[in-house]
Amino acid sequence: MPSPVSRDGGRWKALTFLCLAQLMVVLDVTIVNIALPSAQHDLGFSDADRQWVVTAYALAFGGLLLSGGRAADLWGRKRVFIVGVTGFAAASALGGAAVDTAMLMGARALQGVFGALLAPAALSLLAVTFTEARERAKAFGIYGAIAGGGAALGLVLGGVLTEYLTWRWTLLVNIVFALVAVLGALAYVHEPSAGRPGGRRLDLPGVLLASGGLACLVYGFTRAESTGWRAPGTLGLMGAGLLMLTAFVAVERRASAPLLPLRVILDRNRGGALLCLALAITGMFGVLLFLTFYLQGVLGFSPLKCGLAFLPMTAGMMTGATQIGTRLAPRLSARTLMAPGYLVAAGGLALLARITPDSSYAAVVLPGMAVMGLGMGTALTPAMSLATYGVAPQDSGVASAMVNTSQQIGGAIGTALLNTLATSATGAYLHHHGASGPEPSGRLGLEAVSHGSATALWWASGFLLLAAALAALLVNHHPGTPAPSADGAATRPAAVS
């Protein structure tokens, strides 16, 4: 029997407001990056502090995601969702009114804290609202398109707001999104009352170990980008992060009410989907990061024109998610969509890796981005749905948090690792061509930047190829087959809700 939620005629309206809130979080990853130079000029902070405006958000968001997901399970998904959206808007207002660097950094950290509540609550509400196969595929297709394309849309919106208004509106615009999302959630978002774990307390040791370990890893990857992978600080942070996460697993195996029940991630299909998501996001960040450098630094695009140049990727992603993934997910196995989708995305990145200082946007960049977006959109729909499929209702929040955590870790790795590879390739190119200065201008400088960006894009394509291979090897779920329940028995998909 379908759940009362899935019979609710307002569930599609609820999806609209859940996606709007998720869009607000995804936009914030890139929309502020476009505005940073203007904010730095206005508030007068250093280049080091500029990096912390980004890092403060990433640390709070990545470190607290699991806790936020478990809070949604324990205290109510809708309640935590509304608290997260409201808090995110308040933090955005604080950042938009910032008078100094400390105030802006504090606001960004608060955005990360409330984003860690909002993101898993929204995805878990989606998971328990849409349980019928066709409706679930359509809902996750729309949600996946928003999650994947929102970062590129952030570049456009950030460019528009910064160029025609002020950098402060890249933060203040969240108030508008949040107001609409909260009013819509109060009217249309519902959740089943059954299926929450007993007790109302978080697993405090698990919270401390998971938050500390994830924060150390995210910060370690962030430092690696600027100080190098072999720097003592980088190695120390990564080692501490891995040690804390290892201890976290040991604690969770014995906890009576664990923060993350290990059954959530040890299932073959869910674990495979999460691993593929992390690899795919690692590769996708290569597009956002290095094509931004290339379009502005080599082709001379303005920030607004650069943002608009990413629209073909967004269009391809939305087409793949809503027209291919959504239509075929109820009929084909997840592996049949995920592996070819990631393979097509890898092909799009290989097309983009052909860039040179003389490349035409229309001939090289546009088709590469469109193909990459089409493949990613096709693969994201079954991947995000499978990552929360078959989870007991009382674990849906923390399972949704794992989706966001895999994306956050993948993004941190992608930014740091690919930037290191690009920088090394650029330096090697200059050395090979006998450059005398560290950053020569003119033709040689353009060729070096293009070579470094192309090298990173080839590596990003490799990450997508690996995701395709793992999807083919690990994922074996077929539509309509029983989903594993909490005790390891099989339950029909309709009964999961």
Could you name the key traits of this structure?
cell membrane, transport, mainly alpha, 2 domains, 1% strand, disordered C terminus, 497 residues, two-stranded antiparallel sheet, transmembrane, membrane, MFS, disordered N terminus, Growth Hormone, Chain: A
Task: Outline the structure in words.
Helix content is 78%, strand content 1%. With 497 residues, it is mostly helical. It folds into two domains: 4-190 and 261-495, Up-down Bundle (Growth Hormone, Chain: A), CATH 1.20.1250.20; 204-260, no CATH class. Strands 1-2 form a two-stranded antiparallel ribbon. Strand 1 (483-484) and strand 2 form a beta hairpin.
Please give the CATH architecture of the largest domain.
Answer: Up-down Bundle
Could you please say which CATH topology of the largest domain applies here?
A: Growth Hormone, Chain: A
Q: Which range does the strand content fall in?
A: under 5%
Query: How large is the count of helical segments?
Result: 17
Taking pLDDT < 50 over at least 5 consecutive residues as the criterion, the unreliable ranges are 1-7, 483-497
The tally of domains stands at 2
CATH class of the largest domain: Mainly Alpha
CATH homology superfamily of the largest domain: MFS general substrate transporter like domains
* Average predicted confidence as pLDDT: 81
**Rg, nearest Å:** 22 Å
Order of helices and strands: HHHHHHHHHHHHHHHHHEE
Largest sheet: 2 strands, antiparallel
Helix content: over 70%
Looking at the chains present, what oligomeric state does this protein adopt? single chain
- The largest beta-sheet arranges its strands as 1-2
Domain Major facilitator superfamily (MFS) profile: 14-479
Membrane topology: Multi-pass membrane protein
Subcellular location: Cell membrane
Keywords: Antibiotic resistance, Cell membrane, Membrane, Transmembrane, Transmembrane helix, Transport
